């Protein structure tokens, strides 16, 4: 009991306390009374007014929808490419794997804001070397792929390393046995390696889903470049713009708390599904 | 000068500020605690203008008892204002800050700035219309710095190639010129419609005769979707529908590149543009010419504004008298204004000093137009603003960017977008508790 005390203390201080504070803010509001410019402005109790405002706002649900679209594009892409890279690097014939591993991991080391700036240059017609003159990367459909691409590009490397480590942890004897049985490199990858890294895969999926919920840097940095991204384009941008542009920290807190609940629910859900899958494959 | 450097850097800064505000740390801005030591008063001053340091240095040399430290804010415009509001409750604001006119009511209603009537007595150097921007309910909040009329900047060399030798005098001519330019070279546009700059659109509405906010007693009227503003909105939508102006936002990489390479030939901007153009279109110094913004009816000289700012003393300041003294020196004395003209390229708000010899020299970027400031003086005298900026102009502006951005993107009605802005503004005011008619 005593041994976990420091951990519990830190958890309370840095996780629960801010959440509680956000909750307290979310049930308050500013009320202006008297005078043209509200010379007596006070913080008053608002009950669940801010939550009602958030949940009744179609723009909130739209922003969730846009986030989901990006998740639907980005999460499978992340999983697919991370797995593909990991399996390719582990293949017997792969050479210079150290260098390639580093190269694939490198984008993860680039801060999201900088990555978005770089991709912005690549997308814009005036500066694009990848066909921005012909492809409308900031069109109503293109924008989802443009944002998902930046987000995915940044995290594939990290996820690849996780999966690669899992592949490496599989005892080599299993592959030798399979080879003697006549299995090809591809069959080994698909029938042996893939099922055996299922737990790692479900963890990577969890990271990706949480990453999608936290989508903020990429659209925020791309926003000044295009009319396609509004200030409430994804939920976190809405929280930011409520709190720091519209000066409505209380509404922002309510949206943030609503999102927190959703994030926890999504995390639990993905975890349960992931556990089922890995249990089934372990059988 | 107004700086809505809605650039990429701005976005980076925004994220940084968010982080700083969330964790409640406002490094660098809290120095009032270690205020007076040995009779010397130390002031902190937040300002984002290029060239302001020279002015502060001169003051510090001449006033050993009042030492000012200049702080560059991590974000400009509303990023800064919201930080000021947040830091106000923490008591960590600088003594003095720059605030654009349109944000001052918001600063007053959030009690971020204090009246300076007690400390500054020679405000009669300013015109009534300038003072109306900083005086509310009989109190003066800060010393006005500049007047920023809208100006039409254009590439004389490139327009001449298309046979356009005089700048458009009316908006009808502007529309014709836009068509000529785009027809001669499909890559070129006379201008872009800037859905990301609400102050720009507000300035155009001012010129057309709109009055977005009016008051009677302590009751507000909001008229953002009035006939005048609808006229402006429909005009630009028509140009966009014809495809003769570019749809992208200003202050983006794309726009900078187009401005620099000559794909965008004009810019309806503020008086402060020559201080910004060197970063936007560095290769084009001396190629731009300033002209009055086109009029709705030939001969009408009414002009709207874009930006302009006031130096205000904060509620957190422990030395408001000294802070006000510095603000007044900077904006209301010959020496201060001379330095402002030379280093920050302002057109001063103080009428008494609008004919200083320093104004006979154009800004370096406009070196081909020696009478640049004569034009500014003429435009400044024809400026028409709103009666007052709303206490939640930030909501209005954010709503404009979202609604008009969306309308440009989806080719939907600008007039409907205007209605959204009106609704957002009014409902926020009502929710906060302002009396709205």
TrEMBL record, chain B:
CDD domains, sorted: PBP2_TMBP_like
Cleaved signal peptide residues: 1-20
UniProt keyword annotation of Translocase present: no
Superkingdom: Bacteria
Pfam families to which the protein is assigned, alphabetical: SBP_bac_1 (PF01547)
PANTHER family: ARABINOSE-BINDING PROTEIN-RELATED, POLYGALACTURONAN_RHAMNOGALACTURONAN-BINDING PROTEIN YTCQ
Annotated protein name in UniProt: Sugar ABC transporter substrate-binding protein
Organism, scientific name: Humibacter ginsenosidimutans
């Amino acid at each position: 009991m005593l041994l976990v005390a420091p951990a519990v203390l830190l958890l309370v201080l840095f996780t629960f306390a801010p959440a509680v504070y956000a909750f307290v803010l979310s049930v308050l509001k500013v009320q202006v009374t008297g005078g043209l410019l509200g010379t007596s402005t006070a913080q008053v109790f608002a009950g669940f007014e801010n939550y009602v405002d958030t949940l009744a706002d179609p723009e909130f649900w739209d922003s969730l929808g846009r986030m989901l679209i990006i998740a639907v594009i980005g999460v499978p892409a992340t999983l697919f490419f991370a797995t593909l890279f990991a399996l390719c690097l582990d293949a017997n014939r792969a050479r210079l794997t150290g260098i390639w591993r580093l190269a694939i991991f490198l984008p993860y080391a680039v801060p999201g804001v900088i990555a978005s700036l770089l991709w912005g240059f690549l997308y814009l017609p005036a500066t694009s070397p990848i066909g921005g003159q012909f492809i409308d990367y900031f069109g109503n459909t293109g924008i989802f792929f443009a944002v998902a691409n930046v987000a995915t590009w940044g995290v594939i490397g990290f996820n690849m390393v996780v999966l690669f480590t899992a592949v490496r942890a599989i005892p080599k004897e299993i592959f030798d046995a399979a080879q003697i049985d006549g299995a090809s490199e591809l069959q080994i990858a698909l029938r042996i390696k893939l099922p055996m890294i299922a737990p790692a895969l479900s963890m990577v999926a969890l990271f990706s889903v949480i990453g999608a919920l936290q989508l903020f840097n990429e659209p925020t940095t791309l926003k000044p470049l295009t009319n396609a991204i509004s200030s409430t384009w994804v939920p976190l941008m809405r929280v930011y713009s409520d709190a720091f542009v519209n000066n409505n920290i209380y509404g922002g807190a309510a949206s943030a708390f609503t999102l927190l609940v959703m994030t926890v629910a999504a995390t639990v859900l993905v975890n349960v599904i992931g556990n089922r899958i890995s249990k089934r494959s372990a059988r | 000068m107004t700086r809505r450097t809605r650039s990429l850097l701005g976005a980076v800064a925004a994220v940084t500020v968010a982080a700083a505000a969330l964790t409640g740390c406002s490094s660098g801005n809290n120095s009032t605690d270690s205020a007076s030591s040995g009779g010397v008063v130390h002031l902190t001053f937040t300002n984002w203008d290029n060239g302001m340091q020279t002015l502060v240095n001169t003051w510090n040399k001449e006033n050993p008892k009042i030492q000012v430290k200049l702080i560059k804010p991590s974000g400009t415009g509303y990023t800064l204002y919201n930080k000021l509001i947040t830091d106000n409750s923490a008591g960590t604001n600088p003594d003095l800050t720059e605030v654009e006119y349109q944000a001052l009511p918001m600063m007053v209603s959030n009690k971020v700035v204090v009246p300076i009537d007690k400390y500054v007595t020679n405000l009669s150097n300013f015109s009534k219309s300038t003072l109306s921007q900083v005086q509310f309910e009989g109190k003066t909040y800060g010393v006005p710095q500049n007047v920023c009329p809208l100006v039409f900047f254009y590439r004389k060399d490139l327009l001449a190639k298309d046979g356009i030798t005089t700048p458009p005098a009316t908006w009808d001519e502007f529309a014709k010129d836009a068509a000529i330019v785009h027809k001669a070279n499909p890559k070129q546009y006379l201008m872009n419609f800037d859905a990301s700059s609400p102050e720009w659109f507000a300035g155009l509405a001012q010129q057309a005769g709109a009055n977005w906010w009016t008051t009677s007693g302590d009751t507000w009227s909001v008229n953002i979707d009035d006939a005048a503003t609808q006229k402006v909105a429909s005009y630009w939508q028509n140009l966009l529908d014809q495809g003769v102006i570019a749809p992208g936002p200003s202050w983006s990489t794309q726009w900078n590149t187009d401005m620099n390479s000559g794909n965008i030939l004009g810019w309806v901007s503020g008086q402060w543009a020559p201080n910004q153009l060197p970063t936007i279109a560095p290769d084009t110094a001396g190629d731009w010419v300033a002209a009055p913004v086109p009029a709705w009816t030939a001969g009408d000289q009414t002009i709207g504004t874009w930006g302009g700012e006031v130096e205000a003393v904060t509620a957190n300041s422990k030395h408001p008298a000294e802070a006000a003294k510095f603000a007044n020196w900077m904006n209301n004395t010959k020496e201060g204004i001379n330095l402002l003209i030379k280093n920050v390229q302002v057109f001063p708000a103080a009428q008494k000093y609008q004919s200083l010899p320093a104004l006979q020299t154009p800004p370096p970027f406009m070196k081909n137009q020696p009478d640049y400031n004569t034009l500014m003086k003429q435009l400044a005298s024809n400026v028409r603003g709103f009666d007052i900026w709303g206490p939640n102009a930030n909501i209005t502006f954010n709503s404009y960017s979202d609604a008009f951005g969306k309308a440009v993107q989806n080719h939907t009605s600008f007039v409907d977008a205007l209605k959204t802005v009106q609704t957002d503004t009014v409902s926020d005011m009502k929710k906060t508790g302002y009396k709205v008619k």
